[in-house]
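Hello,

Our lab assistant flagged a job as stuck in the queue for most of the afternoon. It eventually completed. Since we weren't sure the result was trustworthy after the delay, we are filing this so someone can double-check. Below is the sequence as submitted and the structure that was eventually returned. Let us know if re-running is recommended.
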Amino acid sequence: MEELINRVAQSALTTINLEELLHPGERVVYDIKENLFHGLILREKDFRAFVKEHDWSAYDGKNIAIICSADAIVPTWAYMLLATKLQGHANYYVFGDLEVLEQALLQEAIAKIDPEEYRDAKIVVKGCGSIPVPTYAYVEIMRKLLPVASSLMYGEPCSTVPLYKRPKNV
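-- returned structure --
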């Protein structure tokens, strides 16, 4: 009987799993609507009192999306004031919905990647995971690695879709 050889394990492929870049902290929406008087108006004195007295430790380590779901005019300073209290408690916070938050978290994680660690590497960007990774993260990792990688593929090491191969004369 012929011995089976795992060529994937022996290959020089480097796998990047974008799922591993996702921050594990809970995602929370902070809706400033809850601070509006009759759901319409933000009263500065009341809002400042709330911000001062609220227990912000409930947001420790969480990722916060700050929104206003009411059809109300909320002054920009109100969101800024919330940020002063979330800083030091939340892992990360943004103005926008959960999709905006997820994009910001992924962009920050990808920005921390040192492309030089992947110079001349044959890279497989893993697809088909257990956690959905938004398409923009795949495009962003390509932007980051194209200048340094010798080749880039998508999928699993045993079944890849070739995307890029550096020309020999470069």
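-- support follow-up --
The delay was a queue issue, not a problem with the job. The result is valid. The chain is about 30% helix and 20% strand. Residues 98-111 form the longest helix (14 residues).
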